[in-house]
Design brief:
The protein is mostly beta strands and 121 residues long. Helices cover 0% and strands 55% of the residues. The chain is built from no helices and 11 strands. The strands form 2 sheets. Strands 2, 4, 5, 6, 9, 10 and 11 form a 7-stranded mixed beta sheet that branches. A 4-stranded antiparallel beta sheet has the order 1-3-8-7, with no helix packed on it.
Length: 121
Amino acid sequence: QVRLVEFGGGLVQPGGSLNLSCEATGSMYPIYTMGWYRQVPGDQRELVASITNGGGKLYGDFGSGRFTISGNSAKNTIYLQMNKLTPEDTAVYYCNRQDFKGLGNPRDNYWGHGTQVTVSS
């Protein structure tokens, strides 16, 4: 089992910045994808950004430009720098990890409990 813990959420004014972090602990595989997703009430969870163990990055529709994902594989930790935040960015941000177990096997999929980001004046 893998546990994911997010840090860094909170209240910020429009135009401000936040830095989120997520640390994975437990029994993990070396090939993986970790990412940030967000969800607001009544909506489906959506991708913000993801990063692979090799450093490849993918941004969702709302994650490009203002958001930057990074990671430290040695620490099993990913980060999300969020700049120029708007009220539309208000959501619960969840950390995700998918471990590659080999071809022909489904990936293990883990979620953190999420951290609330509220953008309001």
